[in-house]
């Protein structure tokens, strides 16, 4: 079912908005208008869980339990980090305002859940987070003298939490819906973050973008091969006299 987009086609700005965000806005508006909050149950759960972790970790008795189940550091054993990674997405950073993390989760996770589905949203989110986690270990092993290296002190720093997942999902959704300018702005802002403030979080964001870029490339290659096989099958069917098969 197609829902008309109420954006006039006159004017370069409106044409750009229609071309860049039109399909994305249509998908989100249609889902919210037909299902309302039932369209994003996973996102609402993620926001609620992040809020809960924020409240608990700020209690005198709650900081240690939250760190034990959701804090990922490069100095920890790899198997411990892998066990904590799923919940680390929902543990907000202590030095940043929690409302920023909640707004990012609500917006980016919500759009992703509507546009690419819950399973793909979780897959991309965890892939981006895991890429940042693994990069921290590799960067510390390379050392500060390497371009991609990190100082040994970063081993004691907590990973990015939900921000790497948010960045990765934003880039992936923009790629899927051909909002290439928006994806470019996200990538450029992350590069600028590293140039202005060269810290572990910024470099983990770039690692998440690289991981998502590899997933986009793999998806593109698979789609091209699938289309090539479908075209070859149609040509084979027409040469044999059999009617073409529609998939």
In short:
The protein has 247 residues and is mostly helical. The protein has helices at 12-35, 41-57, 63-70, 78-88, 98-116, 118-142, 162-176, 180-196, 200-240.
Structural class: mainly alpha
What characteristic shape results from the CA principal axes? globular
Strand element count = 0
Residues in helix, %: over 70%
Q: Tell me the major beta sheet.
A: none
- Portion in beta strands: under 5%
Structural account:
Helix 7 packs parallel to helix 9 and helix 8 runs antiparallel to helix 9. By secondary structure, the chain is mainly alpha-helical. It is built from nine helices and no strands. The longest helix is centred in the last third of the chain and has 41 residues. It is globular. The N terminus is likely disordered.
List the helices and strands and how they pair.
Elements: H1 12-35, H2 41-57, H3 63-70, H4 78-88, H5 98-116, H6 118-142, H7 162-176, H8 180-196, H9 200-240
Helix pairs in contact: 2-5, 4-6, 5-6, 5-7, 6-7, 6-9, 7-8, 7-9, 8-9
Question: What keyword list fits this structure?
Answer:
transmembrane, 247 residues, disordered N terminus, transmembrane helix, membrane, mainly alpha, 72% helix, globular
């Amino acid at each position: 079912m197609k829902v008309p987009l109420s954006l006039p086609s006159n004017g370069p700005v409106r044409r750009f908005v229609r071309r860049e965000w039109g399909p994305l806005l249509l998908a989100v508006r249609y889902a919210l208008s037909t299902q309302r909050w039932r369209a994003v149950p996973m996102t609402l759960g993620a926001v609620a869980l992040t809020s809960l972790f924020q409240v608990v970790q700020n209690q005198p008795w709650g900081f240690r339990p939250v760190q034990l189940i959701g804090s990922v550091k490069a100095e920890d054993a790899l198997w411990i980090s892998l066990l904590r990674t799923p919940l680390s997405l929902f543990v907000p950073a202590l030095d940043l305002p929690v409302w920023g993390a909640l707004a990012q989760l609500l917006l980016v996770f919500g759009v992703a859940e509507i546009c690419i589905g819950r399973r793909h949203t979780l897959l991309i989110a965890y892939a981006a987070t895991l890429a940042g986690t693994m990069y921290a270990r590799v960067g510390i092993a390379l050392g500060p003298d390497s371009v991609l290296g990190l100082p040994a002190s970063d081993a004691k720093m907590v990973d990015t939490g939900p921000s790497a997942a948010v960045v990765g999902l934003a880039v992936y959704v923009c790629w899927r819906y051909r909002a290439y300018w928006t994806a470019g702005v996200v990538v450029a802002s992350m590069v600028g973050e590293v140039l202005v403030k060269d810290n572990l979080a910024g470099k983990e964001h770039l690692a998440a973008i690289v991981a998502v870029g590899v997933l986009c490339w793999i998806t593109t290659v698979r789609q091209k091969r699938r289309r090539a096989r479908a075209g070859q099958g149609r040509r084979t069917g027409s040469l044999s006299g059999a009617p073409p098969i529609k998939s």
